[in-house]
Amino acid sequence: MAASTPDAPATLRHLSLRYHEFDSPDHLSPAERQVWEAARAATAHSYAPYSGFHVGAALLLEDGSLVQGTNQENAAYPSGLCAERTALFGLGGRPSPPPRIVGMSVAGRPATGDFTPALPCGACRQVMLEYEMRQGQPIWLLLPSVDGTVLRFERLADLLPFHFSPGDLPPRL
Ligand SMILES: [Zn+2]
Predict the structure, then answer these.
(1) Mapping DSSP to helix (H, G, I), strand (E, B) and coil, where does residue 73 land?
(2) Which pTM was predicted?
(3) Which of 13, 59, 95, 162 is deepest in the core (most CB within 10 A)?
(4) Helix, strand, coil percentages, rounded to 5, for the chain
């Protein structure tokens, strides 16, 4: 049976993604290197007895301070939370408006062994993006690649095209 031909042919569109790739963290700027190392250091405080995968996240704020987060697991598995969100929610829950976030990084490693690629999950990307939208200023992101290189994204929005945003919600009565 022949495939049907749509009345209105679809248009094939392409999506491109720009990011920088560094051979090693040695080529990062001092501020980027600081965030990169802070994310790795945070993994020491992860609570990951079930997955055995220790994740750390670090945020660099406009005032130069750092905020770290780690994955926090729970015997009731869905009750745990990723490192990116513990960092962001800890910052967002402060009593006074915090300084804006300039950049962030994520790192992960098994309980014993070296660091491995640790990319933000979909839920974290959604949360990260809303923090970027709220502050109206891009947040750069450093991620470790499978090849051992460092990926630098200029803005979190690039990680989640076709995202859900506050504008997608119906107006409140
Ligand atoms: Zn996550």
Answers:
(1) coil
(2) 0.91
(3) 59
(4) 30, 25, 45
Both tokens of 142, joined, read 């450093």
Whole-number Å distance, alpha carbon 142 to ligand 1 midpoint, is 15
In this structure, is residue 83 part of a structural domain? yes
- Residue tagged active-site, from 32, 73, 84, 132: 84
Q: The domain containing residue 136 runs over which residues? A: 20-157
Burial of 173 (0-12, 13-18, 19+ CB in 10 A): exposed
Q: What is the pLDDT of residue 8?
A: 79
Inter-residue contact 45 to 108 (CB < 8 Å): no
Q: Which residues of the chain have pLDDT under 50?
A: none
The answer to whether residue 169 sits within a structural domain is no
Residues 135-166: pLDDT tens digits?
A: 999 999 999 998 989 999 999 999 999 999 88
Indicate if 84 belongs to the active site: yes
The length of the chain in residues reads: 173
Domain count, the chain: 1
Ligand 1 centre to CA of 98 (Å) is 22
